Hints:
The chain is α+β, with helices and mostly antiparallel strands. About 20% of the residues lie in helices and about 30% in strands. This is BURP domain-containing protein.
Amino acid sequence: MCIVLFLVSFLVATAEGGRDAGLVTRVKETIVPYYASPSELNAYWQSVFPNKPIPSSILDHLSAPSGNKMKDMEKEHYWSVYSDRLTEGDAKIFHNWAHRIASEKLLYPETVFTAGSKINLYIDRAVALHSPYLHRDIADSIPMSTKNFTDITAMFAPVSPSMARDMWSTLSSCEHPREVAGEQKACTTSLESMKGFSALALGTGDLRAFSTSLDVPEEGISSPSQRYEVAAVRAITPKAATNTVTCHSMSFPVALFYCHAVNPTRIYEVTLKREGGASIPESRTPAMVQAVAVCHVNTSGFDPTLRYWVKLGLKPGEASVCHFLTRGDVLWAPASAT
């Protein structure tokens, strides 16, 4: 299967004597292939990770949206307006992953991951879960920068103002300075580049990838009035902590992941049971949830103004900061540490 995009080709003209004469931009219609089926993705995956399972958050990008009313409305909202209606005001930053994940509702102290603990469960919604993967040579040819924003929106026309805001926010997040001291980060636009950054950041190509379970709905979980009890906790990585990379799916017409490493971390698989279970009629939250949680152990470089610290009565560096992975996140860890 393939998709039709308007691919921006950058041609460097070489002047006499070998000096660069300039950069010429040309837009042309082209056929852009991408991983269209699980069998194609599996062939690549098994070539680099023999006999290791593909995380569901990667497979989700190969499937069509469920087609429910919310998805249909979202599609109409994003894609119904032509790009010539965009204005400079539409291209402002409206959200940023680093700020979303900093919401106090999404953050937990590591001490709650003990059987019997009760919490109000918040897991962020998965973003652009079904955006298709591009082949790496195609992905690498697209200039992922706010400086090229006009050209990029032209590739995916028609683009509504709402989608343009999301695209600008994603590109801006990729260009933004590191949020935490010592953070390693990169935005990856192909499965190969995501694996490549993770291998570079972790110092090994022998990796395992994890995702949260399908129990977690795409729209996430928000339970301000219903509490969950921690039924079981399994440490995926050693208690001593290890280095990992987390890649967050970002809002973009094709698969784009914000990958970062804020280490060391401890990773848990947490099983939670909603109080009241299946007896609660028409509840919008699942009765049982199995989710992956990431705990950042060294928090000395974290923002001291976060309400999280006020809530705990602590300062950065005095406690870990944990959050659950969304349905669209991929976590990478050295195979030797799992």
